[in-house]
Each structure stands twice: as structure tokens, then as C-alpha cells.
């Protein structure tokens, strides 16, 4: 299970680094959004009356908001992944939460989330993160 734990940490760091790159692209797009619209209007590809001006005003704000959320979640996930690689219980819980949230990011987030959840909820993994605590199967009460 040791290799799986390390792999979960590495895969989360790589995946979240790629998400950070995507956030950078969104920030850059937000910065040049006005220039892109002006170029489209000047080239005749977009008529000024086709789309309300309010949409052009709010689009960069939305892009920056989405990119900021991506950055915050990715940085938290990278910190959690490094903590998991150092066998910290808080990091295991943090990465579990991030993995559950990542399940909706089809397909890569779903694949990584399922794998991370499987590894981090494994009894052997829990024993490695909490050496003094015994893990017992919970039996249903009838």
C-alpha cells in the first residue's frame, strides 16, 4: 500500500499543477478579453448590437473568479498531497475531501478521485497514518 500512497500524492500534485496552468490561461484570457472583443468587432466577425455590452463587462470578472477558485483548491490539494506523502492524518482527511469534490470533474478528476478515495480509505492506509489506532470492521446492528 506504500506505493499506492506515494502514487496518490504524486498524481494529485501533477493533476493540480495542470489545473494551475489552466487557471493561468483563464487569468490571461480575462486580461485580454476586451482586446479580443474589440478585434472581433473591427474584423466584422461580431456585430456590436448582437450581444449586450453587460456580458462583455462581466465575463472577465467571472473568468477571474473561476480561476481564483481553481488556484485555491489546487494549492490546498497540493499541500494535502505533500502531507499524504509524509503520512500526516490531517492531509489524508484533506485529500479525501478534495477527492470527493473532484469526482465531478469528468474524466480525469473522477478517475483520480476514485483511486485516491480507494487508497486513502483502505484499512492498511489508515493503520499507516495512525499506527496506535486499531481499525475494526463495523458490523451492522440488527
Structure, described:
By secondary structure, the chain is an all-alpha fold. The chain has one domain. Helices cover 77% and strands 0% of the residues. The protein has helices spanning 2-43, 53-85, 89-102, 108-120, 123-129. The chain is rod-shaped and about 70 Å long. The two termini are 33 Å apart. The mean pLDDT is 90.
User: What is the distance, rounded to the nearest whole angstrom, between the alpha carbons of the first and last residues?
Assistant: 33 Å
Give the overall average pLDDT.
90
How many separate structural domains?
A: 1
- Assembly type: single chain
Fraction of residues in H or I helices: over 70%
- Rg (C-alpha, Å): 21 Å
**Major sheet description:** none
Number of helices, counting only DSSP H or I runs of 4 residues or more = 5
**Shape call:** rod-shaped
What's the β-strand tally?
Answer: 0
Task: Report the structural category.
Answer: mainly alpha
Order of helices and strands: HHHHH
Strand fraction equals: under 5%
Low-confidence stretches: none
Please specify the SSE layout and strand pairing:
Elements: H1 2-43, H2 53-85, H3 89-102, H4 108-120, H5 123-129
Q: Would you summarize the structure shown here?
A:
The chain is an all-alpha fold and 142 residues long. The protein is 77% helix and 0% strand.
Key terms for this structure?
5 helices, 77% helix, 142 residues, mainly alpha
Amino acid at each position: 500500500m506504500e506505493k499506492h500512497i506515494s502514487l496518490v500524492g504524486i498524481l494529485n500534485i501533477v493533476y493540480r499543477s495542470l489545473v494551475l496552468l489552466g487557471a493561468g490561461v483563464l487569468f490571461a484570457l480575462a486580461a485580454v478579453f476586451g482586446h479580443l472583443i474589440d478585434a472581433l468587432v473591427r474584423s466584422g466577425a461580431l456585430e456590436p448590437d448582437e450581444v449586450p455590452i453587460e456580458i462583455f463587462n462581466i465575463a472577465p470578472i467571472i473568468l477571474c473568479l473561476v480561476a481564483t477558485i481553481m488556484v485555491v483548491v489546487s494549492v490546498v490539494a497540493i499541500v494535502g498531497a505533500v502531507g499524504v506523502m509524509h503520512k500526516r492524518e490531517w492531509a489524508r482527511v484533506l485529500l479525501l475531501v478534495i477527492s470527493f469534490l473532484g469526482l465531478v470533474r469528468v474524466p480525469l478528476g473522477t478517475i483520480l478521485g476514485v483511486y485516491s478515495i480507494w487508497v486513502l480509505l483502505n484499512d492498511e492506509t489508515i493503520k499507516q497514518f495512525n499506527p496506535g489506532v486499531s481499525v475494526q470492521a463495523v458490523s451492522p446492528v440488527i
